[in-house]
């Protein structure tokens, strides 16, 4: 079935609305807000140090990766809390693995940040 341009536009708008609603729910998570503060600080450092285009691309990518992983982790936690409200050891393992994926992305982002910023910071002194 072929949708006309109005139907496609409405469908895209609805999807975007759902995505914004997801951001609203995720924003209630303390870890996401903390990561957003760290991201803002890193972006300000990027402006201060006048990063090259490729460095900006890398930083924006890893910031997006960490935030996306945190949102996926939140979704997994909420899903498991819904499906298994009582304690279940396997649910705990799944939650830990999801949290570990956020940690892996955050460690990679921190290493990338150190590679980009440490030489510049050292030059200040």
Question: Could you characterize the architecture of this molecule?
Answer:
It is a single chain. The protein has 125 residues and is mainly α. The chain has helices at residues 5-27, 30-48, 53-83, 89-124. It is flat, with a radius of gyration of 19 Å.
Uncertain segments: none
Major sheet:
none
Find the structural class using helix and strand composition: mainly alpha
Percent helix, as a range, is: over 70%
Please write the string of helix (H) and strand (E) elements. HHHH
Shape: flat
- Count of alpha/pi helices: 4
Instruction: Report mean pLDDT, rounded to a whole number.
Output: 91
Termini separation comes to 65 Å
- Give the beta-strand count: 0
Percent of residues in beta strands? under 5%
Query: Roughly how many Å is the radius of gyration?
Result: 19 Å
Oligomeric state as shown: single chain
Summarize the structure.
The chain has 125 residues and is mainly α. 87% of the residues lie in helices and 0% in strands.
From the structure above, extract its key features.
4 helices; 125 residues; flat; 87% helix; mainly alpha
What layout of secondary structure does this protein have?
Layout (H helix, E strand, L loop, with lengths): L4 H23 L2 H19 L4 H31 L5 H36 L1
